[in-house]
Amino acid sequence: MIRPCEVGAAVAASRMETVEKRIGEPSRERLDGAESALAEPRQSVVVAGRYTGGVNADHDRLPPTRWESWNPVTGCTKVSEGCRHCYAERFAERWRGIPGHHYEHGFDLQLRPERLEVPLHWKRPRRVFVDSMGDLFHESIPDDYVREVFDVMKGAPQHVFHVLTKRADRMLALAPSLPWPPNVWMGVTVESGRHAARANALRRVPAAIRHVSAEPLLGPLDALDLTHIDLVIAGGESGPGRRPPQPDWLRGLRDRCVAASVAFAFKGWGGSSQSEGGRLLDGREWRQSPPLPFAHGGPIQQPLF
Questions:
Q1: Cα dist from 276 to 32, 48, 90, 213, 279, whole Å
Q2: Is there a contact between 19 and 117 (Cβ–Cβ < 8 Å)?
């Protein structure tokens, strides 16, 4: 059951005013889920974008490499084995029952309408992870609310929005009614070959960039069809009870991406935190990004992370 966010209009207005005053300040939510909106503010990292491998770069037109999380919805329910050790649930449930806390209701699904327009107030271009604390295509989120989120993304062309879901069927069902501006990168999680069919739904969505998240990677992805996929992001599981990936799973996925000219990014082996095991795969980092509209050839080394 959805719990509407219990924030009155006056409080929402006050928070929006605060957001306006803090334009340009770093987000309080980390992508790896170890911290959230109530953690100490982190310093955003801005990576100077540049190509390697002979592709001409135009630095004024490179996509942003500063990341933020934007959560117009928080909370979710488990749908497959990749959810077993959900970092977002683990964090949110620590605060359940604390009156007035942002996660007073733990990981129960909640709409956060007071957050809808936050990206419109970020003037500096950013990469935005949409719903790092949930799944925008959860079956309990109203269709109209999903459309509102997409309308905001369309209205903020200075940012690149990364939307990720495990609910590929609902994504596909809603796709015809959603705007698909070029700054929306749509992705599905495929943690094992059992869920490779999620990419079939993704191929039918008119997103400018389609990406697969193989994180946490829980098995080989020989069954994954890379046709019309622009980017694969892989990584090991982090946190208590982690299930480490086999090196051959990652090598096989990387080699298939290279052969198909699909960008491949490896986020790390995982551990107590995502970065604990390092990011080297066979002695090098893989931080590829899909070709930009003005670039020629295959993937480029304009790192996402």
A1: 12, 24, 19, 19, 9
A2: no
pLDDT of residue 216: 97
Handedness of CA 145, 151, 157, 160 (dihedral sign): positive
User: Which regions of the chain does DSSP assign to beta strands (E)?
Assistant: 67-70, 73-74, 110-111, 127-130, 160-165, 184-189, 209-214, 231-234, 263-266, 280-281, 284-285
Question: Distances from the Cα of 133 to the Cαs of 70, 86, 107, 184, 284, in angstroms?
Answer: 9, 10, 9, 18, 30
Could you give phi then psi for residue 201, rounded to 5 degrees?
Answer: -70, -40
Q: Is the pLDDT of residue 35 over 60?
A: no
291 prior amide bond cis, ω within 30: no
Rounded CA-CA distance 305/299 in Å is 15
> Is there a contact between 267 and 61 (Cβ–Cβ < 8 Å)?
no
Assign residue 24 a region (left: φ > 0; alpha: ψ between -120 and 50; beta: otherwise): left
Contacts of 222 (CB under 8 A, 6+ apart): 193, 252
d(CA 40, CA 19): 16
Q: What angle do CA 88, 89, 93 make, to 5 degrees?
A: 120
Is a pLDDT exceeding 60 seen at residue 53?
no
Res. 295: pLDDT tops 60: no
b/e 250-288 (16+ beta carbons within 10 angstroms → b): beebbebbeeeebbbbbbbbbbeebeebebebeeeebbb
Measure the CA–CA gap between 133 and 128, rounded to whole angstroms. 13
Q: Record the tokens describing residue 259, joined without a space.
A: 């052969």
Q: Are 41 and 77 in contact (CB under 8 A)?
A: no
- Nearest-CA neighbor of 84 among 238, 248, 269, 277? 238
pLDDT at 43 over 70: no
Residues with Cβ within 8 Å of residue 278, at least 6 apart in sequence: 268, 269
